[in-house]
Design goal:
The protein has 445 residues and is of the alpha+beta class. 67% of the residues lie in helices and 11% in strands. The strands form three sheets. It has a five-stranded mixed sheet with strand order 3-4-5-9-8. A two-stranded antiparallel sheet has the order 1-2. Helix 5 packs antiparallel against helix 9 and helix 12 packs across helix 13. The relative contact order is 0.06. The C terminus is likely disordered. Keywords: Membrane, Transmembrane, Transmembrane helix. This is GHKL domain-containing protein. It comes from Lachnotalea glycerini.
């Protein structure tokens, strides 16, 4: 009989580990794939089995929960790609769900067998086994709802926010544990009814979910404001760079014309040692080649951005073709124009750099009565990775900076109630970015 009890506890620990994996895999991204995950995950059911054994020898429930909470955090940190603070918050939620599952199943079986004595129920092996497996069924139901509701976790919690979330969860766990232990040890003259235990469990769970939703709405708003501030600084830095470049460009144009005219005059007047003179002049002309490739879009900032980006593309052996309807960009604010043009061009150039053969970028900007339409087409060697949400996934090492660039582009378009869309032609190996900005817009930021 004792051997059967150990087998039952091992099966329960295994089932709980599966539910644990379903929950955390549903809200976090895995660090790695393969059998190593199974080896790390095995730590959790082993700890459940061992603490369960010591619980039969008198280990307090609170100590058992604390040990499992700590080990659960360690295992999740080894398996999943997120911050330790996020893991602590979700491990607390997992612990609360586990205790709620136990208390609900205890209440249901108590109603079924007509007993309000917890010790009497748990000391019966068959009924105790029924309570345990019903508890895991309730856990699966709760976890399925939470995973669907929460999705993959992207929030960032501060230390104070983690403590607030834990306080809410710990209070619920402590309340349920206290009620169950009062009933188990009969240390209270108050009789805990089965229905009361079920209702209390559901109320605690509901209150935590409501609190979680309200608190996370605040955190989401806070994070959006922080990202907006980052993007604003990012755009300001780009704008200041191109503003300085524009001032230099005026002087460069004048210098280019003066030098070129001077060299042409030398080329025409020099008759002595004509061959050496000709070679020297041609070399000088070659050094200023490319400075005559100026743009005239009707917008000085756009001109300098295209000039700088096309020269950079030329250094990377990328052909560029820029067609812009004159004065089509004058309705855009300078910071927004800078964000849209630089980031769309940079993304195209990054893809082209990986091409072994021909490399090209084609920019087309037109304005009609309804909208400004910006299209940027480029070829690619490696097909761009797209997330489940339909967003581009960067291949850059500096993912944070790339993310700011994409956010900057989307936020600038959203400011004009515009859309940013893209399409991938796998046969031609072409990527097309389309930005549509309605002319009659409301500034929403």
């Amino acid at each position: 009989m004792i051997f059967i009890q150990y087998i039952a506890r091992a099966v329960v620990a295994f089932v709980e580990a599966i539910i644990y994996w379903i929950f955390f895999n549903g809200v976090f991204e895995r660090k790695r794939r393969g059998w190593n995950n199974l080896l790390i995950l095995s730590i959790f059911p082993t700890s459940i089995f061992i603490t369960g054994y010591f619980a039969t020898l008198g280990l307090p429930v609170t100590i058992k929960l604390f040990i499992l909470f700590t080990i659960g955090c360690i295992v999740a940190n080894l398996l999943f790609q997120t911050s330790l603070r996020n893991i602590i918050v979700y491990q607390g939620l997992w612990t609360l769900c586990s205790v709620i599952g136990d208390s609900v199943s205890l209440g249901i079986l108590s109603l079924r067998h007509g007993s309000i004595n917890v010790a009497e129920l748990l000391n019966n092996f068959t009924i105790g086994l029924q309570i345990t497996f019903l508890s895991k069924t309730v856990d699966i139901l709760i976890v399925s709802i939470l995973v669907r509701k929460l999705g993959k976790e992207t929030k960032r919690y501060s230390l104070s926010e983690v403590l607030i979330m834990l306080l809410q969860g710990i209070s619920g766990v402590a309340c349920l544990t206290m009620v169950i232990e009062f009933s188990y040890y009969n240390i209270s003259t108050y009789q805990v009814t089965s229905l009361y235990l079920i209702v209390l469990s559901l109320l605690i769970f509901s209150s935590y979910i409501v609190f979680y939703q309200v608190f996370n709405s605040y955190i989401k708003k806070r994070n959006i404001e922080q990202e907006a501030t980052k993007v604003q600084f990012y755009n300001q830095g780009q704008f200041e760079y191109y503003a300085a470049l524009e001032k230099e460009n005026v002087n460069v144009r004048k210098m280019y014309h003066d030098i070129k005219n001077h060299l042409l005059a030398i080329q025409g007047l020099n008759h002595e040692n004509a061959e050496a003179s000709q070679t020297y002049v041609e070399e000088c002309l070659a050094t200023v080649e490319g400075y005559d490739e100026f743009f005239d879009t009707g917008n000085e900032l756009a001109d300098i951005i295209f000039y700088e980006k096309c020269n950079t593309a030329k250094l990377n052996h990328i052909k560029t073709k820029v067609l812009v309807q004159k004065n089509s960009l004058n309705e855009l604010e300078m910071l927004d124009l800078c964000a849209i043009l630089t980031n769309s061009f940079d993304n195209a150039m990054e893809a082209c750099k990986k091409c072994q053969g021909e490399r090209y970028i084609k920019v087309n900007i037109i304005r009609n009565e309804a909208a400004i339409i910006i299209t940027v087409k480029n070829n690619f060697e490696i097909e761009p990775a797209i997330s489940k949400k339909g967003d581009l996934i960067t291949s850059k090492k500096n993912k944070a900076e790339h993310g700011l660039g994409m956010q900057s582009l989307k936020m600038a378009a959203a400011k004009y109630n515009g859309n940013v869309e893209f399409s991938v032609d796998k046969e031609k190996k072409e990527f097309l970015l389309i930005i549509m900005l309605p002319i009659a817009y409301q500034n929403t930021l």
